[in-house]
Amino acid sequence: MSWEPVIGIEVHVELMTTSKMFCGCAVDFGGEPNTRVCPTCLGLPGALPVINRTAIESIMTIGLALGCEVSERSVFHRKNYFYADLPKNYQISQFDVPVCLDGHLDIEVDGENRRIGIERAHMEEDTGKSTHLGVGGRIQAAEGTLLDFNRSGVPLVEIVSRPDLRSAVEARIYAQELRSVIAELGVSDVRLEEGSIRFDANVSIRPSGEEAYGTKVEIKNMNSFRSLERAVDHEIRRQSELVESGGLVVQETRHWDEEAGVTHSMRVKEGSSDYRYFTEPDLVPMAMSPEWVAQIRDRLPELPADRRARYLSQGLDSGTAVALSNLDGALRTIYDEAVLTGAPARAVANWLTGEVVGWLRKSDSPTGEIVLGGADLAELVAMVEEGAVSTSAAKDVLDGVLSGEGPPRDVAERRDLLQLSDADALEAAVEDVLAAHPKARDDLLAGEEKALGFLVGQVMKTTQGKADPRAVNQILRDRTTG
User: Fold this and answer.
1) Percent helix, percent strand, percent coil in the chain, to nearest 5
2) Taking the CB of residue 175, how many other CB atoms lie within 10 A of it?
């Protein structure tokens, strides 16, 4: 039987606020365990939460960027469950009245656009961090567990997609695109390695052509895009093989084992009724006025999809547009400035995504400290286009500019990299080479193209690489034809 995967992704994003969601404790990665805590985030009796306004504006920003409707009124709920890293035995979250509802994210898969629905984006507080001691770092085999509540209470946005994804590849592309959008908004550093953005996948299968959903399984512990794709792909195969052998898929939560490349059962999946949601009595409802929403909307930056579309309209191919869009904002600004001066977009983009990025990596230089301006890059491209420097020499010029030696033409002159383009000087150099290599001249007259390359090389050699090879090529052809 042919099976169709049905996949939804839950993405948890830690917001880049100064303080936690409901108290004044600092938000910062790392630090000594249990040093960024207070009675509120530790759940001590009598401590009352206060809503972080910046966090609410951040989730509104995310929702608007995803085309969501921002609720006029939203409330917090208590999600009740017991776990060691949840000191209150409940999590302040949202249930039926989240901040953002009904959005979408467009992705491109194999050259086709796919619209993935966003069911909701709601606000909650993060839990503490559990470190399980023992082989594998899993609770089932742990000799003990250490708890760090520095992360407890950090503002956390949960973005829940609709079950619109149909493959492990689509799941990865969706997660990557969502991360790019959030990074552009500047509300989170979305660092996978620090857990600032985390993915859970809900996976089920159904016979191809059927509308009804199968039993879904939630997968956790995927800390990279590669892990997400591998875990979803494994779960699709596991469920297919299980059903085809006569078994039944159980609604449960499974743990992704990166090293073994398999999922393991963790616990039977709870339903919403198991969490016994009820309205948080210590927090008043929130009102998001149309004026407030409009202010947030007006501050939205150009989003990755819109930026890629703009690059395509400027003549870039799809691959270059994607590569350029993924660059740091400082590099994209250089591109925009250069193109505004009239420099050809393709050449500017190729230099940025190739040589400039390569130089930054090689020198281990921070992008934010780059001294190259858009006018500098435009001047360098123009020098190559007009034959003032060769492409190889232009790389040396770029090195000088990036090293702080000045604008491109000054660097080229100082490093003696300007090409010989004077017509009389080139004519004389070609004449000398033809006289020194009569056989090659005769071969060229006989129509042998190899001789042309040899003679151009000899001219370049005699001029110490400073001759414009295109001009030399043309002079040789003019001299040996007709």
Assistant:
1) 40, 20, 35
2) 24
Q: Which residues pair with 158 in a beta bridge?
A: 12, 122
pLDDT of residue 26: 94
pTM for the whole structure: 0.84
Say if CB 282 and CB 75 are below 8 A apart. no
- Calculate the average pLDDT of the chain: 91
Q: Is 60 exposed, middle or buried (0-12, 13-18, 19+ CB in 10 A)?
A: buried
Question: Whats the size of the chain, residue-wise?
Answer: 482
More confident residue, 458 or 59: 59
Q: State mean pLDDT over 457-466.
A: 77
Structure tokens, 345 = 């977009």
Question: CATH assignment of 423-479?
Answer: 1.10.10.410
Residues paired with residue 129 on neighbouring β-strands, in sequence order = 148
Domain ranges within the chain, ordered by starting residue: 3-295, 328-414, 423-479
The Cα 475–Cα 426 span in angstroms is 8
Contact 112, 176 (CB under 8 A): no
Residue 482: pLDDT over 60: no
Q: Taking 70 as the threshold, does the pLDDT of residue 139 lie above it?
A: no
DSSP state of 341: T
Distance CA 168, CA 263 (A): 15
Alpha carbon distance 22, 54 (integer Å): 11
Q: What is the DSSP letter of 420?
A: B
Q: Which residues contact 199 (CB under 8 A, 6 or more apart)?
A: 9, 10, 11, 12, 175, 222, 228
Check residue 481 and give its pLDDT.
66
Q: Regarding predicted confidence, which is higher, 431 or 72?
A: 72
Q: Is the dihedral of CA 202, 208, 209, 213 positive or negative?
A: negative
Find all residues with CB under 8 Å of 450, minimum gap 6, and list them.
Answer: 443
5-14, 170-179, 261-270: lowest mean pLDDT where?
A: 261-270
Question: Is the per-residue pLDDT at 400 higher than 80?
Answer: yes
Q: What is the C-alpha radius of gyration for the chain, rounded to an integer number of angstroms? A: 30
User: Which region holds residue 291: left if phi is over 0, alpha if psi is between -120 and 50, else beta?
Assistant: alpha
Q: What residues contact 427, with CB distance under 8 A and at least 6 apart?
A: 475
277: number of Cβ within 10 Å = 17
- For residue 253, give both structure tokens: 């939560």
